[in-house]
Amino acid sequence: MSDNLPEQKTSNNSEEIDLVVIFNLIGKSFAKLFNFIGSIFRAIFSVGVYALKAIVVNFKIILITMVLAGFLGYVLEAMRPNTYYSSMLVRPYFDSKFQLVTNIDYFNALLDSEDYNTLSNIFEIDEASAKNIVDFEITPGPETENERIKQYDQFIKSIDSVRAQDISFDDFVENRSIYSGDLFELTVYSQKKDIFTKLEEGLNSSFTNEYSTKKMQKRDSLIIIQRENILDQLSQVDSLQKIYIGVLEYESQAPSTEFSLGGEGFSLSKDKSNTKEYDLLNKEIDLRNQLRALQEKKVDEDVFFDVISSFQKVGSKYSVWFEKYSIIFPILAFLLLCLLYITIKTVKFVKNYEG
Fold first, then answer.
1. Are the beta carbons of 191 and 132 closer than 8 angstroms?
2. CA 182/CA 154 separation, integer angstroms
3. Distance of alpha carbon 252 from its chain centroid, rounded?
4. Residue 283 CB: number of other CB atoms within 10 A?
5. Phi, psi of 254, deg, nearest 5
6. DSSP letter at 198?
7. Residues contacting 116, CB < 8 A, separation 6+
8. Mind listing the pLDDT tens digit for each residue in 19-54?
9. What is the Cα–Cα distance from 247 to 240, expressed in whole angstroms?
10. DSSP 8-state code for residue 317
11. pLDDT tens track for 263-292
12. Which residues of 144-156 are buried (b: 16+ CB within 10 A; e: fewer)?
């Protein structure tokens, strides 16, 4: 047993040595990791200091260049004619939205080809005013989340149920075309700020085409047929009501013929007619509601479009950030100076590099 003690001590010592080696390796690994992270921060700090040093040393050149670039941008902004815009919101009917989108593209094509004579004839304005028009734009009108959900539900019901499982609401909203909505916003850009109301008449003519006209006529013909059918049913209901009223009057005036048999409580009486005045009344109400709905539809959709909001008499000034030259030019000048500085430093380094 005394011979096993040295062997146990030796094994314990070897296990302790292995643990020490492992901890040393772990410590060295963490030290290398911290040194690597520290070197990254030192490199970032050095780059920042060198960049600030270059800016401080060349501060006067940078300042003068940016001031000159800003002045040049301001002059170009002052020389450039102002652009104004105004929008109108419309709701097309009878699928006239397809013709509307096509005509907006046609107007822009006329502008690109500088065919101002045709534009002046379409909008009934002079050619000088037509030259002030910059662009026509059509976009889907404003809609709430509930309206998008309703459109999504209608779309899902119109396709196969298996296919509908693969189309999410986000996919539907993202892949909709401009023809999906019922409201459209028409925006006109012009260098003349009071021309917009003069363009409404020409834009209104953009809704009418042969297809929409035929669809409106077909709708009106169907309404006439449905109206005549409902009036005929109302006439029949009225005749039945008169017959039932006559039956009730007759029964109310007829003498009672009830008598009993023995003492068992049995009685014989003439059964009264089972009339359905209440059902007839409900039927009449339903038919009149249908008739009213047809009349309301005829009144609500008696035109090819409704103007929800018209153009402003005076347009708003149009401005976008990439056309603010007084701000863009100084930024571009600073970036060009940085690129020039880096290029010079790189060329010098390459020339002096000896490997």
1. yes
2. 14
3. 67
4. 17
5. -75, 145
6. G
7. 110, 127, 130, 131
8. 677 777 787 787 888 888 888 888 888 878 888 888
9. 11
10. E
11. 444 444 444 444 566 676 777 777 777 777
12. eeeebeebbeeeb
Angle at 300 between CA 296 and CA 303, to 5 degrees: 140
d(CA 214, CA 211): 5
Strand blocks (E) in 264-304: 266-268
Query: Chain centroid to CA 290: how far?
Result: 34
pLDDT tens, residue by residue, 194-219: 888 888 877 776 666 666 677 777 77
Note the pLDDT tens digit of each residue in 85-107.
998 888 887 777 888 888 888 88
Q: Please tell me whether residue 337 adopts helix, strand or coil conformation.
A: helix
Which helix (H) or strand (E) element contains residue 151? helix 145-158
What dihedral angle (degrees, nearest 10) is formed by the CA atoms of 126, 131, 132, 138?
A: 100
Q: Which residue has the higher pLDDT, 10 or 274?
A: 10
Contact 298, 227 (CB under 8 A): no
Question: Which 3 state secondary structure label does DSSP give 312?
Answer: coil
In eight-state DSSP terms, residue 59 is H
Q: Give the end-to-end CA distance of the chain in Å, rounded to a whole number.
A: 70
Beta bridge partners of 307: 90
Contacts of 310 (CB under 8 A, 6+ apart): 88, 197, 200
Of 206, 203, 193, give the one whose Cα is nearest residue 85. 193
**What is the C-alpha to C-alpha distance for residues 275 and 270, in angstroms, rounded to an integer?**
15
Across 179-203, average pLDDT: 83
H or E stretch including 33? helix 4-57
305-309 vs 259-261, strand pairing mode: unpaired
Give the CA radius of gyration of the chain. Answer: 43
3-state DSSP assignment of residue 162:
helix
Taking phi over 0 as left and psi of -120 to 50 as alpha, with beta for the rest, 148 belongs to alpha
- Residue 280's Cβ-count burial label (10 Å; 0-12, 13-18, 19+) is middle
Enter the pTM of the model. Answer: 0.59
